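Whether sequence alone determines local backbone shape is best considered at the level of individual chains. Part of our work consisted of pairing the sequence of a single chain with a tokenised description of its backbone. This step matters because it turns folding into a mapping between discrete strings. For completeness, the protein is quoted in full, as a sequence line and a line of structure tokens:

_____
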Amino acid sequence: MIYMVEMALIDLDRRVEWDTWYLAHMKKLISIPGIQATQRFEALAPHPSPFIALHQVTGPEVFTSDAYRAKAGPGGTGEWQSRMNNWHRNVLAGVDTTPNVPMEGALVVVEDGADAPVTLTWLNAVGLDRSVTRRAIGVGARRAEAEKLIGLAGVRVCKPLTPRLVADS
């Protein structure tokens, strides 16, 4: 399953500090049993929620675990919670692993009812906010090719901000 978190940073003057905090947060997340991988992205065109994190989870029970409640969730974002808006958290079923998007590639996010000329995996919301019912993701191996999709209705093209981090087995 995929745990997709989307948000906007309100205080852009603190972007470098936020990026540093978020990388540490990602490392903390993959220390939680049931969170297996994580990668972070930024939309290449304006969007209400330009930042996305994809976390590979074993299932929705992760979010009710003591370990998750102690280290993560809205309370685990500290001071940054009030510095983000358009924040949506969805657990999506339809694939067991998050894609490994190369740093020179792109994540393509497609809303229900839209389409894009890339291989897509359609996912259904099964937990947390359920701010979407259905959404697809795809990977553009070369960002320049994926950038041609910018402007298509319901399509968001995002560059990786981090490599995919994987939990220690």
User: Anything to note?
Assistant: The mean pLDDT is 92. Residues 41 and 160 are 4 Å apart (CA to CA). Helices lie at 15-29, 66-71, 143-146. The chain has three helices and nine strands.
